[in-house]
């Protein structure tokens, strides 16, 4: 009997070789490493009985043709990694459905629709200051303006696509008709510790969190740390610290809320000067838009209070926001059933991270299957999901498709 | 009648021309700008009747010979500025006593002792990673090891002294006999807002604050800001912020205590990652050593608590400490009387900053006269003390010397 988990682990190990020199995996879009991954994946797709082509956005597509007019169900994820990332994030969501289809066909289970396995070129947005190019293009939401964005080497996305043998001007034509798009399922490592803590191999995603980012600048007055009495200070770092602790307490006390001050820069940042300026970012995520937006308003109030308390000028700008994407209730239910059939509880959880599914949601109903990862770690060489869990995921995807 | 304040202001303006291109004044030790300042000051010293020489450490010395065996009283400060600093910090303490002596001699007031006006080459420590070279040398505390320290251009202090026409190997010989050293008075802008807030032109320094510096590293774990639940985080910046607000509250509640987190660096410092590491400095100053040391212990306890609360590893090191230097009670009393004779109240305050007086205290009793500066600002182009206040300081120094 085939050990599908072991096969998945072997394949992920082989794909991890398609990387810039380590540590970990570095596979950026439209590079020789990307080409190597395409070559490997194409072979496996063909072995599974899929017809393979590379679309104009660099998405590798493996298609199993169903009855005419039956519509297409999509499965997939991204082939790219962050720099010095792991062997699972993204690419696992390509490897598992290929095996699931192989398993279905081996069991002579006919599918009453067409299936496509998609390996998107770029979800991480590491090389170019844009991301989700392939999934947005399929959903008809591709912005041709991003073609002029350049990487650190000054190469535009347009040039990179051309150098990869693709025709950027044809990207607009790969949008799929939504009436024939039945749905999208993405399998992904959790990138968090919840499944591990709950002793569950698989999780069913309820929604992809909405995100908002705030850029805060606090302006006080620098001065000699020895000569300015405490009562005369306008210390921007003291004000910033009140915001950091305040937003952290808020996020700890509200369900379904995460808030992070990720970046904080102090000026002049020397041992003997009162900090005169701090620039900081605050990122707020929630699967519930109202919760996120309320936290954003609380943050603004907190920042105003801190500025008043410390006699600082305040600039606060919401620099980015993206609403939550609910997973499709019918697909969630079907995925839950499939997961339970593998002996797991079907634990529901939101996705804190953005995925290709966020963009595919503009095309069709979507769902996501989370796979437990060790220590909740991702975007690192140590990223790891156990072969047994990979096997459970293959089985769950098989059930999901068979019952569709 | 001579307007001594206006003359002081004119002289400081002239000296401000001895600077690298602006903004503000940049006059580093053993540079052409230093040479230009020496030439200007030498002329004024000679005009005031002082015998001038440059010692082996680059200190410009103007001496008025008193009765044989009567001992020497020292007045002075440093000629150097920080980069883009002001026209008053340091150099004002050289200009004012020259005028005070000129005023005394014009009034035919004989002095029963010798007087030396000193313009030290380097107090700020901007060019070389050492400072107080000239005052330490006079006090017999010069460390020849610092001669091998280099500036940003790779020039050693030894080489810089040689290039300036000085003999570094003779620095050991300029130590003055302490039995003949009657005392040292340094006039300096306050560099803080206290005199301005109290509507006083002049202040009498009680002590130069002791300083201790702590280097704190908080080690947590970085991770995806979207996927790590709040309860699973080990956020180093949240821990650091607790320390920043805690030490600030402590310093605000304890008399004679100042504490500053001046530098704070976050890693990886990106918008969507939980901060895994923070390195920060804490500087604590007090004129009372016991107060400072208690605050240092409180800081360590605070840091341990923050580390426990946020599940962080903590490294804390006291990287520097320097005890407070009390001003000499007899000189303080005499200076207080002199200041009151100018119509001021003789407001007492500690010096939060270190000065050449800190080093001269190892040679002889010392005192410091603070002059009000606008907005408490120093180390900036906007640094300013009013001519009327400069005039009051000249008069106070005159009284101080005449009554000695």
Features:
homodimer; 404 residues; alpha+beta; Aminopeptidase; Alpha-Beta Plaits; nine-stranded mixed sheet; five-stranded antiparallel sheet; 33% helix; 23% strand
What does this molecule look like?
The structure is a homodimer of 404-residue chains. Chain A has two domains: 4-209 and 324-402, 3-Layer(aba) Sandwich (Aminopeptidase), CATH 3.40.630.10; 210-322, Alpha-Beta Plaits. The first copy, chain A, has eleven helices and 16 strands. Chain A has helices at 4-16, 32-47, 92-106, 133-138, 157-163, 194-197, 236-253, 289-309, 329-340, 356-360, 387-402, and strands at 51-54, 60-64, 72-78, 114-120, 181-189, 202-208, 210-219, 223-224, 258-260, 264-267, 273-274, 277-286, 313-322, 325-326, 347-351, 366-371. In chain A, the strands form three sheets. In chain A, strands 1, 2, 3, 4, 5, 6, 14, 15 and 16 form a nine-stranded mixed sheet that branches. In chain A, strands 7, 9, 10, 12 and 13 form a five-stranded antiparallel sheet that branches. In chain A, strands 8-11 form a two-stranded antiparallel ribbon. In chain A, a hairpin with a 5-residue loop joins strand 1 (51-54) and strand 2. Chains A and B meet through strand 8, helix 7, strand 9, strand 10 and strand 11 of A and strand 8, helix 7, strand 9, strand 10 and strand 11 of B.
> How far apart are the termini of chain A?
25 Å
Report the CATH superfamily of the largest domain in chain A: Zn peptidases
Largest sheet of chain A: 9 strands, mixed
Oligomeric form of this entry? Answer: homodimer
Query: With helices defined by DSSP (H or I, 4 residues minimum), what is the helix count of chain A?
Result: 11
Number of strand elements of chain A: 16
């Amino acid at each position: 009997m085939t050990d599908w988990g072991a096969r998945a682990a072997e394949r992920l190990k082989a794909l991890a070789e398609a990387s810039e020199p380590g540590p970990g995996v570095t596979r950026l879009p439209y590079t020789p490493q990307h080409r190597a991954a395409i070559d490997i994946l194409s072979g496996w797709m063909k072995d599974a009985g899929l017809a393979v082509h590379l679309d104009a956005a660099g998405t590798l597509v493996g298609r199993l043709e169903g009855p005419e007019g039956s519509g297409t169900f999509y499965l997939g994820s991204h082939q790219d990694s962050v720099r010095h990332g792991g062997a699972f994030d993204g690419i696992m969501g390509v490897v598992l459905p290929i095996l699931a289809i192989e398993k279905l066909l081996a069991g002579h289970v006919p599918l009453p629709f067409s299936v496509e396995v998609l390996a998107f070129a770029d979800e991480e947005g590491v090389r170019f200051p844009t991301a989700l190019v392939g999934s947005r293009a399929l959903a008809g939401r591709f912005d041709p303006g991003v073609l002029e964005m350049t990487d650190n080497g000054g190469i535009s996305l347009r040039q990179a696509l051309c150098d990869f043998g693709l025709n950027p001007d044809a990207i607009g034509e790969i949008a799929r008709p939504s009436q024939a798009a039945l749905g999208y399922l993405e399998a992904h490592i959790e990138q968090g510790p919840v499944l591990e803590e709950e002793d569950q191999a698989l999780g069913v995603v309820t929604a992809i969190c909405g995100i908002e980012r705030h850029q805060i600048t606090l302006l006080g007055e620098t001065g000699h740390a020895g000569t300015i009495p405490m009562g005369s200070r306008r210390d921007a770092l003291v004000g910033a610290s009140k915001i950091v602790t305040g937003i952290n307490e808020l996020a700890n006390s509200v369900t379904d809320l995460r808030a992070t001050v990720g970046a904080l820069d102090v000026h002049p940042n020397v041992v003997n000067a009162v900090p005169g300026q701090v620039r900081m970012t605050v990122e707020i995520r929630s699967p519930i838009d109202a919760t996120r937006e309320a936290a954003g308003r609380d943050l603004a109030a907190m920042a105003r209070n801190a500025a008043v308390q410390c006699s600082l000028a305040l600039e606060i700008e919401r620099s980015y926001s993206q609403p939550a994407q609910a997973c499709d209730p019918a697909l969630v239910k079907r995925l839950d059933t499939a997961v339970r059939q593998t002996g797991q509880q079907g634990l529901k959880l939101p996705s804190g991270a953005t995925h290709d599914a966020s963009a595919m949601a503009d095309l069709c109903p979507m769902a996501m299957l989370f796979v437990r990862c060790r220590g909740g770690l991702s975007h690192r060489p140590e990223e790891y999901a156990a072969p047994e869990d990979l096997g459970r995921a293959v089985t769950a995807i098989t059930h999901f498709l068979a019952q569709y």
